[in-house]
Amino acid sequence: MAERKTITLNMGPQHPATHGVLRVELELEGETVVRARPIVGYLHTGIEKTMESKLYYKAIPETDRMDYLAPMSNNLGYCLAVEKLMDIEVPEKVKWARVCLAELTRINSHLVWLGTHALDLGALSPVLYTFRDREMILDIYEACGGQRMMTSYIRIGGLAHDLPLDFDKKVANLLKVFPEKIKEYETLLTENQIFINRTRGVAVISAEDAINWSLSGPMLRGSGVRHDLRKANPYSGYENFDFEIPIGENGDAYDRYKLRIEEMRQSLRIARQALDGMPEGPYRAHVPGVVLPPKEDVLHKMESMIFHFKIITEGFKAPCGSVYQAIESPKGEIGFYIVGDGTNRPRRIRVRPPSFVNIACLPALCEGRMVSDVVCAIGSVDIVLGEVDR
Amino acid sequence: MGLEEKIPDSIILTTLDKVVNWAHKRSMWPMTFGLACCAIEMMSASMPNFDLARFGMEVFRPSPRQADLMIVSGRVSRKMAPVVKTLYEQMPNPKWVIAMGACASCGGVFNNYAIVQGVDKIIPVDVYVPGCPPRPEQLINGIMKLFEKVEKSSLKDRHEEWGR
Fold it and tell me: In what order do the strands lie in the sheet with A23-29?
């Protein structure tokens, strides 16, 4: 028998199909992948450590820059964790507004994923459509937080400002036009023979393996496991919403594509309910010394001004103890573990990033497959390197 | 003068500098190279709403060997720094660099152990675009500024630069 000859191929970290700076070391026998090893760390930013050196509320902008396609989800996860630590109950309006924004974020993230994934597989047009439509969501972000991507709009105990005046109009317009747009993407891809050939039966992971790899989000649901934190462990009032959790059957890239498209539809449904049912009320909880008082009070009341000054300069002191709060981000379960030590800075912050856990199963997805399937596997996992490396 | 009058209409007299700069300016090929958040805005800039193609820039090249312009879009970690430098060295002359966003310009919000405090520590930068991340319009403005710089450059200076 002839000796098995393999070559080692380095993919990345500047390869355009690795969605950032992921590096994959491939061992190939001909065109078959014998071994694949993802190497992460090229975007290590020290975000956890930086957050530990900041006041609790000043760490929020750092969370934006982890999963930069889903800034609102990260803000929400962190703020919920700190609220849990501080035992703050937020007003109803805040909960509904947060749900609405988190679902728009899910659409935003899935749109970028859809465009780039199709682009990697050779379909050049979907990305033009998805980026065009994504601007509608970015407009809403900009109206809320003043920034297109790094909003930092969700704050501890509420929101940064009240919702903008034309929020209803803008979201209603988005909800009106988006179902048609999703149909448009489906016309381009769902029955596209090339796309089907490139994705069906590729990057398969079984339900059992998915659980064993600790996958979450569309990666897990694509294999047929109906697990979603919005249903399993509701936060921010998700129990009040009526929606379904789509699941796949085969656990391949095509199923995950169908699933994410369906998730966008469900997100529209949730956003519609959140918009219609949004109650009136304050946009921040009333917790003196922890949450900023309303601006009018700061200008006219002595104690409010003192609280404002104290919070901005010194922050607030959190009790000793640790909390873990996980939410369902577009990529999967993003969890924040925070240890408070009685001072105004967290002792330890640990983030459980869904992308990092999901990319770990890359060898299982592409070993034994062709080298061209590696691109499809990386794309269908939907990673954001900012979150993988932090 | 007399000489110009005898030249037919289809011939234009100019300097070599002007022609070369005009050609460089109108067909600048950036490298498809995204690092972090700013890369998404860089993609947005080339997408229909902002349409970088209006300025002859739509041809993003995945290989550094075919690119003239490197847009450092995002934070450069210490692990990534040697890679960025290698990529820059692989690009053929003449080449330009835009530091896009606060992180690439000066480290931005990440003043810590992991991030190179400005990509100009490792490679020369022509234009800095502020913002975190900059809007696509800002990036396009930065590219326009780079075009102005290219227009003013001279082959003579460039020759001296390469000789170094």
Answer: A7-11, A23-29, A32-39
Contact flag B35-A21 (C-beta cutoff 8 Å) = yes
Helix, strand, or coil (residue A150)? coil
- Identify whether B110 is part of a domain: yes
Global pTM reads 0.90
Which residues are CB-contacts of A248 (< 8 A; sequence separation ≥ 6)?
Answer: A221, A222, A223, A224, A255, A256, A258, A259
CB contacts of B137 in chain A (<8 Å) are none
B-chain residue closest to A148, CA distance: B135
Q: Which of A20, A135, A149 comes nearest B133 by C-beta?
A: A149
- d(CA A65, CA A157) in angstroms, rounded, equals 21
Which residue has 């994410």 as its token pair? A260
Beta-carbon contacts below 8 Å between A and B: 87
Task: Measure the CA–CA gap between B154 and B56, rounded to whole angstroms.
Answer: 21
- For chain B, what is the largest distance between any 2 Cα atoms, rounded to a whole number of angstroms? 68
What residues contact residue A130 under an 8 Å CB cut-off, 6+ apart? Answer: A111, A112, A114, A115, A185
A44 contact residues in B (CB cutoff 8 A): 77, 79, 114
Contact at CB, A386 and B36, closer than 8 angstroms: yes
For B48, the domain range is: 29-158
Number of structural domains, chain B?
A: 1
Task: With CB atoms and an 8 Å threshold, state whether A150 touches B112.
Answer: no
pLDDT in tens, A138-195: 999 999 988 888 888 999 988 988 899 999 999 999 999 999 999 999 998 888 898 8
Burial A285-318 (b: 16+ CB within 10 A, else e): bebeebbbbeeeebeeeeebeebbeebeeebbeb
Question: In this predicted model, what pLDDT tens digit does every residue of A63-95 receive, in sequence order?
Answer: 988 888 889 999 999 999 999 999 999 999 999
Nearest CA in chain B to A68: B37
ipTM score for this prediction: 0.85
In degrees rounded to 5, what are phi and psi of residue A23? -120, 135
| Domains (range + CATH), chain A | 60-350 (1.10.645.10)
pLDDT value, residue A264: 92
The partner residue sitting opposite A128, judged by closest CB among B39, B47, B135, is: B47
How far apart are the C-alpha atoms of A90 and A197, rounded to whole Å?
Answer: 48
For B43-78, write each residue's pLDDT tens digit.
888 888 888 888 877 778 888 888 888 999 888 999
In which band, very low, low, confident or very high, does the pLDDT at A105 lie, cut at 50, 70 and 90? very high
Where residue B82 sits, what CATH number does that domain have? 3.40.50.12280
CB distance A42–B47 less than 8 Å? Answer: no
Q: Transcribe A5-37 into DSSP letters.
A: --EEEEE-SS-GGGSSS-EEEEEEETTEEEEEE
| pLDDT confidence of residue B33 | 83
Of B36, B40, B41, the CB nearest to A43: B36
Provide residues of A within 8 Å CB-CB of chain B. Answer: 13-16, 20-21, 41-47, 49-50, 61-62, 65, 68-69, 112, 127-128, 131-132, 134-135, 148-150, 385-386, 389
* Contact at CB, B80 and A135, closer than 8 angstroms: no
